[in-house]
């Protein structure tokens, strides 16, 4: 009986719950912050389901029981139609943009995982002369505002003849300094003894990295993958500037179709935006446990 | 990469590279070192000139860019199969129409020119960034949309060319009849004072800043027509305001063009006619600033945050705002929004004035980049084609912009009147043609973009948010800073 009780008891028994003023305040702040974070998302989904008339007239809840309007699921189809038609693929441009977004995002994630793992391993685990200085230089590049490098990057794309190609959309993002930093922090927590044992077993750095470090770092690698996927998926300005044809554009660029001219069809814009972020949301919900672990174990937590 | 360009692309206070010299005189342009012999066919064209056959027989040499109509005449496009790429910022819907038009041009022109359009960005700043980078990379398009001040900046880098020689070319230019058909104010808006009247762009569309007003509401307030003077306008706006009910007389938008329109209508200017100095510290500038301040102090205006795109239009359509000042190209959008919103009677008018009407002329033109004489000529032929009656009519009908030719007016109006989507807005649209005679241009000089920010942040916004600020000091300080920016960006002689 005692054994059974021990088995069912929590491994880290929680402290007796005591309602303190400070605790309540903290909980209240967290709840308010969570609500504030969710409001824009809710606003987007609700607006996507409203008619243009309800949007114009600022009707917050046009559906039953407060209103008589049915949810406008047709907005999603209309948004897809509004973006236009791809005569080459004989389909709506939305699907072309979707394909490009998938290709670009997955390519960037794959590339970043490879380059970041190698760089982070070198900076975190190897004894190299000038390593600290190199690491500082790498970090400094994080401080450069994106807009400052925009024009030089475009010039490079023209000069390399990469303008309006997948190379332009992918290659400049194959190295991500934040990912290197995050992985380096994670790799540095792997005990040195492990490497020394591996050394005795005849392993070198490359094999140790592939066989030991990478499998042990799955949460961190997943975090890097997820973050880079989100960044690549959401990128707007660069894909817009680095391409010229609609068949090279990505989903985020499609959003600008609703914001031009002297009027904005907000309900269609929101319907399109909801479709654009859906894959990211699904990915996050599927991988949220590993994502959390990845952040918690890299020393980045507060 | 020049530091100046980098700064220009990323923020205010751009420092352009040294400009090229003014267009060479014909005699200079004929120097062999900077020109190449004309093709035989071109020489033949030159010999067909009616007067003085002996002189006409002289070979015409063509410099890059051509600096005289004769040089343009001498360019031979036969068999060159030139391609012209047009960078613009219109959405996919307009891109498709533009593609149709340019396909038509590609099929019908006798020179084998292939023209195509590309969306270079979602806004004018996007196109500006991309063009700036392309200039640095030596790969500009053949033509692109550019506001007059942006064109001046490109010209300062020797990247775009004067269109006048093409326009005046006997062989490829516009006839007198064509020139008369264009709205003169539209054509004049591209003559740049910083470059001795060079024509740095050519209009394919225009719009004007107008006042949208809720006619039903105005009538309820006791006014049977739109206010024609600022005093009546302010009085009506304040009568309409009821902050408790979220109703306001005016929607204040963060836009220097809004400010400029008001200054114009009070008899002032933003830039001196010779382009040598900013002059919005005039009495008209002070009055405009003071009125913005009063409108907020008396709770007669509501601020539209920059993040709320077209927020003034939505509030107007919901019946929350009596007046807005916005581009006439928004007419069809206003029509749709109001019909879906509170569905009231509305109309447009010129902004109130101090006895002398004035309207702010909007609209980017199309500029030609310095490439090769053949490509430059091909680019001009594309622009010329887009400005023809049929094309300008189609463009206006599809976008809500104004056609650039008088002969297109009737067709555009008839199309609008037959389209139920336009409703009463079609009649309002028709009235704008009478207002072109009062058109004014804000500031066609390099470096106007940072000045626009300055006017918004340091004049209009400060007036709206600080009831104690001195309007005269605000415009004086801003004008001083604007003139420093003007000096910094002025072409180096």
Q: Could you characterize what this model shows?
A:
The complex is a heterodimer of chains A (302) and B (493). Chain A has 302 residues and is mostly helical. Chain A contains 15 helices and 2 strands. In chain A, strands 1-2 form a two-stranded antiparallel sheet. Residues 1-9 of chain A have low confidence and may be disordered. With 493 residues, chain B is an alpha/beta fold. Chain B has helices at residues 3-10, 26-29, 40-47, 53-56, 69-74, 92-108, 124-136, 148-156, 164-167, 176-181, 184-188, 215-220, 230-240, 256-265, 283-297, 311-317, 331-340, 373-386, 389-399, 409-418, 425-431, 448-465, 471-489, and strands at 35-37, 61-63, 83-88, 114-119, 143-146, 191-192, 198-199, 207-214, 248-253, 301-304, 321-327, 346-349, 359-362, 365-368, 439-440. In chain B, the strands form 4 sheets. In chain B, strands 8, 9, 10, 11, 12, 13 and 15 form a 7-stranded mixed beta sheet that branches. In chain B, strand 3 (83-88), helix 6 and strand 4 form a beta-alpha-beta unit. Residues 1-54 of chain B have low confidence and may be disordered. Classes of the chains: A mainly alpha (302), B alpha/beta (493).
